[in-house]
């Protein structure tokens, strides 16, 4: 039955209209929001059938509506409801909770899409994307370098080279010269070569996950639509035919990042051996081999940077090409160099003994310095782009992208430093046997307490702000419910809910303070490590007693906190693997964070919208062609973002036959502020102009949804007056029990939802689009609010 219905709706493969007479039947396509739901709950019926789709994402109907196309007379006064369920794209599998470990990659990918509008400054736009891609590359190098630090330096070099540590951890005994009596694996180079399996395996895992998700997500075919004559490409890139098909870019970036990770492992293995060979008494043949290997690694690294610097996405057409040679040969070349590095390091050097720590300070210091410079340069470019077309609603005056990129680097530093500190403490039970991780990681851990002080101050400011807003809202609550007997506690709860919801608009200020503080503290830690070459406690040895005590306290507390942060992250992942409710919470995080295609980092969690948006576009396009074009797409929360993106992908004639109903929508409040180039006033204004009609519902108690608030002369209003929440202040004949404060949920319970949906359906007519209202005065609704439908 599914296949027959799909063929009947879709018609020919070339996109032509199907050979059937349009029925004029109306369709209401429901799209749920974050966290997901079931088709039974969306359609309010326990008996549902799948119309089209698979176990990952599908369209459902009530069982009684399965053959609605054959009974158009039964649906003259009501629509056919359908539910698009996409929650399994993000949170349907317990193993996906492990994607928490990819959080820095996801955050830096968000920074790519947070740029201000370009408005003709194409070179500046390309420079912005290049800087973000390079920042993502440094995160890959940082993560693999942290794995090398743990496996090669702390375990194989320091612990296995120290008798007390090796005896405490018997599984390292065969690597220890003192414990194994000089076994084959006890030579320093061979220990490093064996330990390199850990970061190499991590690289292979990231490559495999990216390849598998690439096949499941990026390879989904979008609706093949050429750019229309006269179409304005500057309004929003989300309407371009190739926007939701980033297969080529992800493949190229995956090859480059995989090669960069393998080269990082090769350098970590070969650098200690090369340093020994260049020293006094080093064997000349091995010294020459070390120089040759170093040069080959440098050349391959330059090729990796070149691949990342190449033009990013091709959005004006569906780009099905692949850079086959680069995708195949770049990782293979890096893998061959890694194999040569393992052979080079494992060559017998009788005089070589492990002492101290490996030279990781230079590597971590270089990565940190490059990240700081990239973020600063990104801020300059974003500021210049924002100046060309200022948007007062843009987060941080266009600097949201650089701030989020800084947070991604900070998350990468916390994860790398946290795992190094925890492993070091675990291996070195006495705290005196090992030299520990690089000095820079200790300095970075030592500034964590200062960052926590700033965060506590921010939370205190937010609490004070919420208290003041709640007091101010009490009078507004009394005005919204006139004639009701005063209930102090009830008023306080409603006012508190409104005040807490309003704190969402303070997000840009919080991110700005945290990102700026993180940048300054990170640069301070780098300067301290480079200037002293010692840990904070070691650098304060000759200082006064209170300074020395503060340095020792910051170092110990920071080491504990940064390790605790990493442990908590892993614990959340493990809990989500076993607990469905925790997995649902993490799924909400991915619903928001993985909406955008992977344009800056290939190891980020996959973009579910590259499956969901084509699904919705195909469904709307085939329905409007086959049934006269009466369609209302109804999106809640993140579903409204998917609905808008799908509407932009339609052809102009099809877009005119679609009405849009959004509720609890973050389109302007979150996406419009943080992603101004794609959801700014111009983009949302074009959507309002292009669809037949758009109505938006929101509540003052909703922390996510808000008004669209289109500025300027764009015709009738999109937003309805804020819905009352709760519907009734006290007990009434219609509501004999106290009503709940719904906030972001259950918009369908408000009578305004059914009223707006009916107006949209009544406005649409079969065969031709309904005339748009162009008069100066919008038609007043039943509640006195301005109406456009």
UniProtKB/TrEMBL annotation:
Keywords: Membrane, Transmembrane, Transmembrane helix
Ranges of biased composition (kind: Low complexity): 1-17
Lineage: superkingdom: Bacteria
InterPro entries xref list: AB_hydrolase_fold
Location of region: Disordered: 1-26, 764-789
TM region(s), chain numbering: 97-115, 127-147, 192-211, 255-276, 288-309, 329-347, 367-386, 398-420, 440-462, 510-533, 553-573
Name of the protein: Membrane protein
Organism: Streptomyces cyaneogriseus subsp. noncyanogenus
Organism placement in taxonomy: Bacteria, Bacillati, Actinomycetota, Actinomycetes, Kitasatosporales
